[in-house]
Write a structure and sequence with these properties.
single chain, alpha+beta, Cytochrome p450, 2 domains, five-stranded mixed β-sheet, three-stranded antiparallel β-sheet, 23 helices, 12 strands, 56% helix, globular, binds protoporphyrin IX containing FE
């Protein structure tokens, strides 16, 4: 039995350690931007979690340079605003991307953190590093492979190359047609005057999920409705179980964090089972997983890539594809332009030789090049949706080992840096009437997005542009072009009553989010699918 004094000593030690861990903060460097209001002991800036955009906007207004410091738990964060700081944020090579998101974005560890398998792979590569001895080239190769974000980015570029996109296109078209076929089948009586109501943030979201898993993952999941349903279930859990504590003090095991980690593990399990089966049986797929397997990549890393790719790709794509359809229904002049654009692309580039081909079959026969060049109207509609939905902050960390100069101030070594997308996208001096959906902003005569350096951030700028942009645009074009061809529809509430004003986009949201209350679409068949 332990003596009472030993127990007391342990209690005091544990208490002191916890106290020190909770109350310790680095001293603020005198040249760092001033500490903003509303930063409390232990938790730091609570509004960073409760009303993020209001917090950034008010802190910037209260600071003479527009820059400010705050704490998230014990982590020092410098918030940057204004044009010159924005440029440093996106261009400075010492601001680490994975390191920034890893420390401040909830759930990033599930996204990009190593799975148990990836950790094993890292260990194996560590052995390879030791074996490489002084051979610089071999060491570099081994190191590159150990760095998951480097691996992730290089494989993202590889699996979304033109040859892979071309090979995938018929399957992507097939997926979109099949899901729209499900919607057509849901119309009671199925006549051309009969109607049904759909929640696009559910059903269109599902299409984006399916196209993403097909393009950065494996066909086995995209082609198995039951498996895809399970993946979506775990995906939504990972995405929804957010907890400020996990960001402030990741070493405290909260229930939400445990559930989230378990949901992440389920995702890993599903993908790994498919990969292991291929390894065991020699069965092949025609997909991203196979490309990586053929390159000899480690299965742990492949699984990490697929799950992370799915999480990185789906939310923005699913939310924006849904919003475009909603906004088009509320803006008939843009709907007409989009429909005219689709018809023009069909007349110009359909490759089917069947004289009886339907509009949908003709659309399905467009080659990749046409999809990528003949939809500039859908492109500006998407651009405008992204401007409105990209509401969160973006993060980096100063990994230079030194302070970094920003104007007359500094970002201290090891500090995090945050920039809020709304600082640009909701700036009325760049985008007049900024909450209005108005794709005409990007016309040559208005060119609002070119008014200043980095005035449009929707696809990322500087050192970290979106690596999935080409595929993301293609999937939006596919979804929108097929949907407006097959259906006539209006925006409505859950009961099918028409609406003229949708739920406003929450500017305080951390990222693109599905609106609550939801916006629905009442649709009827326009063309046979
Ligand atoms: C409408 C859809 C999408 C939007 C609006 C979007 C937007 C962005 C933005 C703004 C960034 C830069 C973030 C920052 O600077 O902090 C980014 C980065 C990235 N995106 Fe996307 N994205 C979309 C779809 C996708 C898809 C489908 C994928 C892949 C499947 C993808 C993969 C990536 C990756 C890997 C990065 C990080 C690049 C790096 O580390 O340098 N994105 N995206």
């Amino acid at each position: 039995m332990a003596s009472p004094s030993l127990i007391a000593a342990i209690v005091i030690l544990v208490g002191f350690t916890a106290y020190a861990k909770l109350f310790w903060r680095p001293a603020l460097h005198p040249k760092a931007p001033p500490l903003t209001h509303g930063v409390y002991p232990i938790v730091g800036a609570t509004k960073f979690f409760t009303r993020r955009w209001d917090f950034f906007r008010n802190a910037a207004r209260a600071s003479s340079t527009g820059n400010f410091s705050f704490f998230v738990g014990p982590k020092l964060v410098v918030g940057l605003t204004a044009e010159s700081s924005r440029q440093v944020f996106f261009d400075n090579r010492h601001f680490g991307f994975a390191e920034g998101y890893g420390g401040l974005a909830e759930g990033f560890s599930v996204l990009f953190g190593p799975s148990a398998e990836a950790s094993k792979a890292a260990k194996k590569l560590e052995e390879q590093l030791a074996a490489a001895g002084n051979d610089a080239k071999k060491r570099q190769e081994a190191e590159d492979r150990m760095n998951f974000s480097k691996f992730f980015n290089s494989r993202m570029v590889r699996v979304l190359r033109t040859d892979a996109m071309q090979r995938n296109l018929p399957k992507l078209v097939g997926d979109v047609r099949a899901r729209l076929g499900d919607l057509a089948a849901a119309i009671p009586n199925k006549g051309f005057t009969d109607e049904a109501v759909v929640d696009p943030f559910e059903d269109i979201f599902k299409i984006a999920f399916q196209l993403t898993i097909r393009s950065v993952g494996c066909g086995d999941i995209a082609e198995d409705t039951e498996l895809m349903g399970r993946m979506m279930h775990w995906y939504h859990l990972v995405d929804s179980l957010t907890s400020p504590t996990a960001v402030m003090y990741p070493w405290i095991p909260t229930w939400g964090m445990i559930k989230r980690t378990m949901a992440g593990m389920k995702l890993f399990e599903i993908v790994k089972k498919i990969g292991d089966e291929r390894l065991r049986t020699g069965k092949r797929g025609e997909d991203a997983m196979q490309i990586m397997m053929d390159q000899g990549d480690d299965m742990g890393n492949i699984v990490g890539f697929v799950v992370s790719g799915l999480l990185a790709g789906t939310i923005n794509s699913g939310v924006n594809a849904s919003w475009i359809l909603v906004f088009l229904s509320l803006n008939p002049q843009w709907m007409n332009k989009v429909r005219a654009e689709v018809e023009a692309a069909i007349s110009k580039s359909a490759t089917t030789t069947d004289p009886n081909a339907t509009m949908v079959e003709k659309l399905a026969s467009l080659p990749l090049e046409s999809w990528e060049t003949e939809f500039p109207t859908i492109e500006v509609c998407l651009r405008e949706c992204i401007r409105l939905t990209a509401t969160g902050a973006t993060f980096r960390r100063n990994i230079s080992g030194q302070d970094i100069q920003v104007g007359d101030e500094i970002v201290p070594k090891d500090a995090y840096v945050a920039y809020h997308f709304n600082d640009t996208h909701q700036d009325p001096s760049i985008y007049p009437n900024p909450t209005k959906w108005d794709p005409g902003r990007y016309s040559e005569d208005r060119a609002e997005d070119k008014k200043k350096q980095y005035a449009y951030l929707g696809w990322g700028v500087g050192r970290h542009p979106c690596l999935g942009m080409r595929f993301a645009k293609l999937e939006q074009y596919l979804i929108v072009a097929f949907f407006v061809t097959v259906f006539d529809y209006i925006a409505c509430d859950s009961k099918g009553n028409p609406i003229t004003t949708p739920t406003p986009i929450d500017l305080n949201a951390f990222s693109a989010r599905r609106p609550e209350p939801r916006v629905y679409l009442k649709y009827k068949l326009k063309e046979q699918i």
